[in-house]
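Aim 2, interim progress. The first record below pairs a target sequence with its structure tokens.
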Amino acid sequence: MKIVEVKVMNKHGLHARPAVKFVQLASNFKSKITVCKGGSCADAKNILKVLSLGVDCGDNITLKVEGDDEEEALKQLTHLLQVVLPSEDRE
């Protein structure tokens, strides 16, 4: 099992579209992936559970990944969380 703390850099945190991208990416892996904020944890492959964590920009979250493809899953998910995604606002 790999455990890593990541600072979320996307200005929208893990809400709406960024959360969907995160869950879709997590779902591509066979490993069990858990995301935690504070004392709450959620299955990273379940959009409603991820959204319920209320992850905002600048929050530190913990990723726990266990399985045959844990190294690659952790690498890709960490990259997604640390990249500042362009704003998708329609201003």
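The second target in this work package is listed in the same format:
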Amino acid sequence: MKKSILTMQGFYLFTFFGVGSLYPLLSVYLQNSIGLNGYQIGIIMSIGPIIFIFFQPIWGFISDSTNRPILILQFTTLLAGVIALGYIFFEDFYLLLLVAIFLAIFQSAIIPISDSITLKYTSRFHLNYGNIRLFGSLGFGIAVFVMGKLSEFKPTLIFIAFFLSLALSSILSSNMPKEKSGRKLNILKGLKEILTIKRLILFLIISFLIFGPNLANNTFFGLFVQNSGGTYAGIGIAFLIAVLSEIPFMKASNRWIQKIGLLNITLLAGGVSLIRWLFYYTEPSLWLIYGTAALQGVSIGLFVPAALQYIREVTPDHLTATAITLYSAIGNGLGSWFNTFTGGYIYEKSSIYMVYLFFTFLSLVGILLNYWLVKEEKEHSLLEKATLKR
């Protein structure tokens, strides 16, 4: 068990170190080293979330239908690392766009399938998923700080770091627990079955409304800090505070979940997100922004473990990978793209502060739906107890 836990922790550490090495610095590389214009950079940076929307459910279907999640994870992780090296060798916009497309296709499988394996294992042995997933936040935080400094000397190091990190993750994935669903899945029947789980569908909408703005914030937070008087170093510090604040909350997530319940945790995370976005709309001082960046620990550090465990709870074992990849496609893919695209339009027409007012509105709708789902779950639980007594 100790070996399995260390393997999964190492997988998240290296995978997110790779992600943190590449994506926060990719737009800078494309502008300064390649010379692409803002329009071209925008297309390359936005293609990933769009690809995720379509391909994450496909990888989930493949994983559930073949019952070979480890092999798929090993293959897609290594190939994503190799493809990213294409950024070093090409300078033509269309070739770079192809690299971004194929990278996103294979990268879209990594986190949902690894989350599915980890959740099944931690559920089976009653372990804390957050204790494993927090290593992802740690890896991302270290990478942003370290690679931000190293890339000043040699920008292409971000791609080498991404490749080496994912190569190590691929090796580790071969030793991850062999968590299988027990029976093979017919893709069409599986999709139909997923769509009949009303609680799951409603929670996917809640994730879109609450988690989507949190992901889009990664795009706008740097601009927000800069508009408030922050330097490039200040932006790095703010991101580091935000990302590292997730770790203690992920570690404590299991205890919190046992005390107040999964949906109450997502409700709390949504409420903290709403307060944060509304506070940013009021144009606070730079030091208050640094201080409140730690609120990300609650809004993401608690939401992610609770959301994944809720999906695991309401979904049959043979559909776990499909449900989690669907969650990733809607929350990480569609939610991130919609909020980034709409936020960009609002920013262009108005100001960065209005972007956060938009995030506030979406979070409010998500919280109201979350509260309604909490009430529905309570009524469902009371009905089940009454039926058992009879």
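The radius of gyration is 20 Å. This observation will shape the mutagenesis plan for the next reporting period.
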